[in-house]
Design goal:
The radius of gyration is 20 Å and the shape is globular. The chain has ten helices and ten strands. The strands form two sheets. Strands 5-4-3-2-1-8-7-6 form an eight-stranded parallel β-sheet. It starts with a strand and ends with a helix. The mean pLDDT is about 95. By secondary structure, it is an alpha/beta fold. The longest helix has 18 residues.
Length: about 290
Amino acid sequence: MRSLLFIPADDERKLAKGLGSGADCLLIDLEDSVAAARKPQARKLAAAFIAEARRISARPSLFVRVNAHDTGMTGDDLDAVMPSQPDGIMLPKSQSGDDVALLSAKLAVREAESGFGDGVTRIIPVATETARALFHMGSYAGVSQRLAGLTWGAEDLSAEVGAETNRLESGQYTDPYRFARSLCLFGATAAEVQPIDTVYTNFRDPDGLRRECEAARRDGFTGKMAIHPAQAPVINAVFTPSPEVIARARRIVALFAENPALGVVGLDGEMLDRPHLKRAQRLLALAERAGI
């Protein structure tokens, strides 16, 4: 998934618009974007939207961001949406892999109750929203076969820390949040799941979004969350490998396949070793997921 678009679950117009946004995944939000008094109605709308959207042959993935475990509302969220069979659940304010294991157990019960196959519902935790969570970023490896990715957030974390801001005047994150971003990247890599970059909140700044996407792709992220439909095409463009890059990756894989006994091969005057092969294989897998 290259682009993951947040949509408030209580806004029928935005939900419908999201289907035409081009986003790879819709994050139907029951958490921060929905006021407490509207959460019961939002759950009903989310369930109805998922059931209807699943009938569309070419559709984005449908994930629901539920409320965090410590709110006491996670169970109500799951009871409402799981019968409609979302593709996955986004878990906010995850403290460690234990929170994913707990959610996985809750999903298993509801899958059985709804007659779905065990393990079909994927999980993406938002893993850096509290200070405590940063000390457990290595705990997601092997915790659940449902784990599809790991993402991070700077807004809740900066509020907990009491920071005046989380970005410099240049637009770059300050050091504490760059640290959280890096931990997310390494945690996802260690867990062998997709590293997903956080949102770019200024939806009227496509150039800034593109720069941040390019920096994320450079560092190893393979997708980014969005808060506005207009951001999805920019994110998709940056995280879609170009034909030239794909062709080179295929040449690298072919060279190593032709020379299995060699640890180093030469291509266009450059010496390439096994890490280059692994990078090429990962890029081709990303291209395949993007349908290229």
